Amino acid sequence: MVPCAQQLQLPTAPLHILRQAGRRVIPLPRPLRRSRRTTAAMASVSSGTPSPVVLGCGGISVDYLATVASFPNPDDKIRSLALKMQGGGNTGNALTAAARLGLRPRIISKVANDAQGRSILNELQSDDVDTSYILVRIAIPQRFSANHSGGREREFTIHLHIIVDEQTVQASQRKIPILIDAERKREGLDELLNFASYVVCSAKFPQAWTGASSIPVALVSMLSRLPNIKFVIVTLGEKGCLMFERSMTDASEAGEIDAEALFKSLEKKVDLSSTIPKCIASKPNLRIIADGVGSISGRLLLGTAEVIPPGELVDTTGAGDALEQFYMLVNFLF
Fold this sequence. Notes:
Elements: E1 2-3, E2 19-20, E3 23-24, H1 39-47, E4 53-57, E5 61-67, E6 82-88, H2 90-100, E7 104-112, H3 115-126, E8 134-137, E9 142-148, E10 153-160, H4 167-173, E11 179-182, H5 189-193, E12 198-201, H6 205-210, H7 215-225, E13 231-235, E14 241-246, E15 256-258, H8 259-267, E16 279-281, E17 286-290, E18 294-303, H9 319-333
Parallel strand pairs: 4-7, 7-8, 11-12, 12-13, 15-17
Antiparallel strand pairs: 1-4, 2-3, 5-6, 5-10, 9-10, 13-14, 14-18, 16-18, 17-18
């Protein structure tokens, strides 16, 4: 995810009028614009400057959400109580959140010229996401996978093939902040992480990527191995999220504190009776160490999650993608 996309060398004409490698690119429908008054948008209007641009490159998909009476056992055939179809994918979710927060998102991806592809485009455009740089192909491979989100809902997702190009390198050369969404280890991710300014990842990723014994130790390892990163956020589901923020100044003269012990001290401050999300932060500019890994100057921040009654919670898929854009917005405003 790249803020300030207007500084990158995007194509001189939108992709809906380009031809690539002899293959025709299908014209895209023009976006349907809706007025949104958010904090960022109102701040932009009052200052007389346009809202910042965020460029995203990655996956967009269609989610089929089927509500069932109970989760099926192997080989069971059951009827759904309700079925709905909506857009998904990490980049699609994140840029939709960016648009609703008042930023100006643009997306680089690829879809097929079929019902699912057109549905994706229409939904993004209705949320003011600029789809001019989405490549629409007459026929591209599609993958279908089934996932379950717990409770009474089962989710089926079509993952569409995506484009990845040199925009990350260009952004890095121009010192434009880059946010990487890291769900799991995959080919090419290590190279991308070297360009990252910020990383938001799943609960399992830090330990899987570093081989560390715990999440706090893994975060120390990640910031040690990736010196350009300003912070790493780990989403923890119903437990909220954990951020390790690097200090701008070195804390070598400060007393050292163990990463796991610091994390446990923050957990003890959580008010289990409260349903309102809160941020519990350590002291700033600590020298945080992990045995066998090293030390980093910074601080830990533990964010709790709002307690939502089970009857009101349907599906948490995409919550982490929306969280990314909140931090992107804060980065722009402050």
